[in-house]
Fold this protein.
Amino acid sequence: MLTRISAPWWATVALTVLLVLASLFGGTFWAHIAILAFMWAAAASAWNIVGGFAGQTSLGHAAFFGVGAYTSTLLYVHFGISPWLGMLAGMVLGALLATLVGLPTLRLRGTYFSLGTFALGTTMMLVAIQWRDLTKGGEGLSVPFNEGLLNFSFLSKTPYVLIALLFMAISAGVAELIARSKLGYQLAAIRDDQEAARALGIDVTRAKLIAAAISGGLTAMCGTFYAQYIYYINPASVFGSNTSFQPLLLTIIGGIGTVYGPLLGALTIVPLTQLILGSLGGEAAGLHTLVFGVALVVIVLFAPAGLGQAAANVRSLLASRLMGRGQVKPAQPAEQKGVK
Amino acid sequence: MILVQVVASGLLLGGVYALLAVGLTLIFGVMKLVNFAHGDFLMVAMYIAFVLVTTLGINPYLTIPVTAVVMFFVGAGMHHFFLRHTLDRGHSNQMVLTLGIATVLQSLALMIFSGNFLSLPPSASGFGASVVIGGVHLSTTRVVSFIVASVTTGALLLFMNRTLIGKSMRATSQDTMAAIMMGIPVDRIYLLAMGLGTALVGVAASILIPMFAVYPTLGGDLILLGFVVVVLGGLGNIGGAYVGGLIIGVVEAVSALYFGGVASQAIYFLLFVLLLLVRPQGLFRGEAG
């Protein structure tokens, strides 16, 4: 299918290599940046399966992230079950929750779906705060540290870099498989015109539910990673609305509905905001999120198809200028059906 | 007796929710825009009111004209500089744009005012602490806020029903294409809707600041509540949003009495999801259809 690797993919691969090198030679600060970037790339890629491929703008993915984080942590704290197994359990629960929640909410259209999922994410946070016996409420849970591969706990940051990279590859790999499969085409048809898709014999509900389950499971995987890397979770940090918004925003910045988009968005914006946070620290609280917000506004206004398409445009522009070949194509705005 | 007390108190606070939601539903109805920055506009306006009160020493309610006018231009500016360029791109694109603007506003507030909760001393409103009506003690600030919110909503309804501009806005809300063909300058109507909806948030800010502290993420905490009220009242239905605000105020207060604050929120969000599934058009049919 891809005989020529496209410009956005070159950028994505180059950024990944740069981040891995930086994490190996740049000390713990750069390793931290790389870990967060890969983790959010994995989460954004998972979100994109529902939000991009199927065009269902979910604002509640924190629910699955939180379920992943709490499942593995609770199993580890109470029963000493390896977080790896806890992660698998969390992924199953995340997929189940996505299916259960999806059954009613995926019937909602456009705005209503976004608002409904937003409310569900917030409800999960409130449940986690309220259910003190299980979750210790707002106090949160600390993950006990016992170094070892089985315990998903490492003193050095290098294993985390590799695991986060692996998770990113899994998430993007699954997305790529879906994009090429029958399901991928069905989702694209649903995104473009649900009624037409139904008329063509696509089982719309089934396709959406499968996408939601896969997306929820992969998001839960990222939640476990977060818990095992930060060693502390509370309802606001894993179930909060920022956790829901982050994958969506990174995906939009990179290019929604494409496999590379979520990766490109995360690999550029997360390091950028972390660098600002790291270099200015407490002196400029709010500056890193300001950059995030401004980047978002600029992208939506001037490059609605995302960074990847913008990169491709620049490349074809350069090619035509330097070598007098190639066609300059204007940016194709991501076609999203407006809610009627 | 305590239940009557709680219901009355919830009803009064519901008036402010109503005012927040009326602006949100006006914008949604006319522009079909889910404005995630609406709560953050409230936060900005509350900071403006707070600074005015603390530096000039004036009564918070006297800041209403200032916050309303300033926020009108903030809303109109948001349309002119940002939203105007994305209206043809579908709802998720616009929603993300408003999320971006919300993030920018929150970050700026954090940089300027830090994350502290800022609140006015109880004496700032210039009234006594409470009034007693029929044996029920009501906080004066809540009574005043309820009256201001109700009068403002009433004025808006009159404007929408009696003036030509108001009717043009309703026409745009009901069928944008038909409105364009009737010669209604839809772009200017959008600007006006965005300005008016945001000006209402300015009024809400001035009546909230004697009661509640302001902090940078206040908008994010309130926006979902705003949407709950809007959907309850029927998307785009101004009268519905007002009644919806009162209902949510009472539901929140009563369930907080029996189940505690956090559980009460979970309860009305679940009610909201149920409502979306069973009756997405809201209790009252939305103007947006």
